[in-house]
Amino acid sequence: MILGENERTADANRSAFAAAGVAVVNVMSSPGAGKTTLLCEVFARLAPELRVGVIEGDIETAIDADRLAATGVPVALINTANGFGGECHLDATMVRSALERLALDDLDLVVIENVGNLVCPAEFDVGETARLIVYSVTEGEEKPYKYPVMFRSADVVAINKVDLLPHLDFDIDAFESNLRGVNPAAAQLRTSARTGDGIEAICGWFRSVVEAHVQVPTPHDGDE
Amino acid sequence: MILGENERTADANRSAFAAAGVAVVNVMSSPGAGKTTLLCEVFARLAPELRVGVIEGDIETAIDADRLAATGVPVALINTANGFGGECHLDATMVRSALERLALDDLDLVVIENVGNLVCPAEFDVGETARLIVYSVTEGEEKPYKYPVMFRSADVVAINKVDLLPHLDFDIDAFESNLRGVNPAAAQLRTSARTGDGIEAICGWFRSVVEAHVQVPTPHDGDE
User: Fold this and answer.
1) Whole-angstrom Cα distance, residue A191 to residue A72?
2) Separation between Cα atoms, residue A197 and residue A138, nearest integer Å
3) How would you list the strands of the sheet with B109-113, edge to edge?
4) Distances (CA, A) of B51 to A99, A211, B39, B78
5) Quick check: B161 contacting A, CB < 8 Å?
6) What dihedral do alpha carbons A210, A55, A57, A13 form, nearest 10°?
7) What pLDDT is attached to residue B111?
8) How far apart are CA B170 and CA B216, in angstroms?
9) Rounded CA gap, B87 and B202, in Å?
10) Which B-chain residues 4-43 have CB contacts (< 8 A) with chain A?
11) Per-residue pLDDT tens digits for A132-182
12) How many CB pairs under 8 A join A and B?
């Protein structure tokens, strides 16, 4: 896909999201960093207060879509192997194709779980409000420098699976410093879906994205 | 790059490798699965018997190239951010560009460490003899079904970081069964660079690739 074409479709998606008053978070990571498990925990906590919908991107299978749907949220699955050439990322057109399967007007937040890939998804604006990168502590300290496009694009990075830290040689302070070197503006949260560490913090971040996005009605002078 | 063009260049690479009598292994994985650490251990053991060279693919940085060069092997680094559009994989043309920096005639084995990505590298033949996928046990049991193109293309899969198994919910038997479901022909080895588990087995696999590839001189009748 030509990137200019993608930008136009991303802008159309952005308009559709704005018209529905819905905030959209694009969630990206390497394969197996724990996106789906983390999102299941987050949705369980956000469900009573926010109406959440999901766009799930995978090359093949409905494994992750089924797990997320089990939390009670509506899920629109995009398998890139079906009609999208087995693409390694979601683009704006694919996301657009999923919108008709989500009742946007009934939602506060749409979470897009992108294809597991620390490279290509970063290059495609899909019309999102914010970007969350999930990074597993098993992946090493140096990756912000090796995958800078992805890490530069993040609004927040969930440093995940911190329950494994006692069993790894991973220096989390060094990773956080490397990440600041590449993207000083990104918020950093330490998380573990297994122990619950940081889950409330990441829920707080999701809430803040929705609140910042809410259309505040313009005050007017009434009819005096 | 057009795939037909890639195939032609891959064939040219294959001819160059055959002419030099060198076997070539393309090593692929997700980011952080442990390719570089595993290869450092393998090279330390193979060095006394085999002449090994490396083509290192990364989007940016010489971090992995420097680690591998420290084992004493010659390394030709390809940074895809320099002149290759920051590509998320190596293709045959990139590998070709590295060949002039390796003295192929002085080598028995070239190891190509591909960009960390479980999707795109699988689609590009670079002229290799065999493919090794390194998979970390932290990545979950279901990935062979979610990333079938990669797993189908493997000759051998190193199921890595098995030292972490006591701290994970990962069901290694289920993973191996899923992998057999997608690719029944692939050899499966359990490895850990940290404990040394399976390193001798993977060295044995590298040796077998080199031995199978050695050009046996065609017997001839002499000049009687």
Assistant:
1) 23
2) 17
3) B75-79, B52-58, B109-113, B23-28, B130-136, B156-160, B187-190
4) 55, 61, 14, 21
5) yes
6) -80
7) 98
8) 44
9) 29
10) 30-32
11) 999 999 999 999 999 999 999 999 999 999 999 999 999 999 999 999 999
12) 101
What does the angle CA B167 – CA B170 – CA B176 come to, to the nearest 5 degrees? 140
A63 and chain B in contact, CB less than 8 A:
yes
Work out the end-to-end distance of chain A between its first and last CA atoms, rounded to an integer number of angstroms. 54
The shares of helix, strand and coil residues in chain B, as percent rounded to the nearest 5, are 45, 15, 40
Query: Cα–chain-centroid distance for residue A118?
Result: 13
- Decide if B136 contacts B34 (C-beta within 8 A): yes
| Ranges of chain B with pLDDT below 50 | 221-224
Task: Give the whole-angstrom CA distance, residue A115 versus residue B189.
Answer: 27
d(CA B90, CA B126): 8
DSSP B134: E
Residue A168, min C-alpha distance to chain B (Å): 8
Helices (H) and strands (E) in chain B, counts: 8, 7
Q: For A143, which of B32, B136, B161 is closest by C-beta distance?
A: B32
Q: What are the angstrom distances between the C-alpha of B30 and each of A34, A213, B125, B161, B203?
A: 13, 34, 18, 13, 21
Low-confidence stretches of chain A (pLDDT < 50) are 217-218, 221-224
CB contact under 8 A, A118 and B120: no
User: DSSP letter at A110?
Assistant: E
Nearest to A147 among B31, B147, B161 (CB): B31
Q: Which residues of A touch B148 (CB under 8 A)?
A: 59-60
Q: Using an 8 Å Cβ cutoff, are B123 and B114 in contact? A: no
User: Hey, which residues 75-134 in chain B have their CB within 8 Å of chain A?
Assistant: 86, 88, 115-120
A136 SS3 class? strand
The ipTM, to two decimals, is: 0.90
Of A59, A136, A140, the CB nearest to B146: A59
Please tell me which residue of chain A has the smallest CA distance to B121. A88
Q: Are B118 and A118 a contacting pair at CB < 8 A?
A: no
Backbone angles phi, psi at A111, to 5 degrees: -105, 125
